[in-house]
Amino acid sequence: MSNTSFIRVTFLGVVLAALAWFATGLLQTLLFAERVPRTVAPRGELAQFERTATDVFDAAAPSVVYIFTETARRSMFGRTAVS
After folding, report:
1. Using H for helix, E for strand and C for coil, what is the string for the chain?
2. CA atoms lying within 13 Å on the CB side of residue 56
3. Which of 1, 2, 10, 81 has its CA 20 to 30 A from that of 25?
């Protein structure tokens, strides 16, 4: 195999690998995403410990700040990881 043929084959392999890398998210969306949103079921009554926690939070709410932090990062393989 000559030097130019090797370079062409290597370049083609890199381009195909890059296309496969970036198409992963699109393919996952097309193949595995639900087309119709799921129906929302009404929830029942809260359990006793849940009501107690809610009451404690409501009583302390004027003096407490509730902060929820979520970070989305893309992994090396293109999938989104949430932490």
Report:
1. CCHHHHHHHHHHHHHHHHHHHHHHHHHHHHHHCCCCCCCCCCCCCCCHHHHHHHHHHHHHHHHCCCCCCCCEEECCCCCEEEC
2. 6
3. 10
> What does the block give as tokens for 17?
């690998």
Residue 18 CA from chain centroid, whole number: 21
Q: What is the pLDDT along the chain (83 residues), one digit of tens a residue?
A: 577 888 899 999 999 998 888 888 777 777 777 778 788 888 889 899 999 998 988 888 777 677 777 777 766 666 665 55
Q: Which amino acid is at 39?
A: T
CB–CB of 54/46 below 8 Å?
Answer: yes
Give the pTM. Answer: 0.34
35 vs 52: CA distance, rounded Å: 39
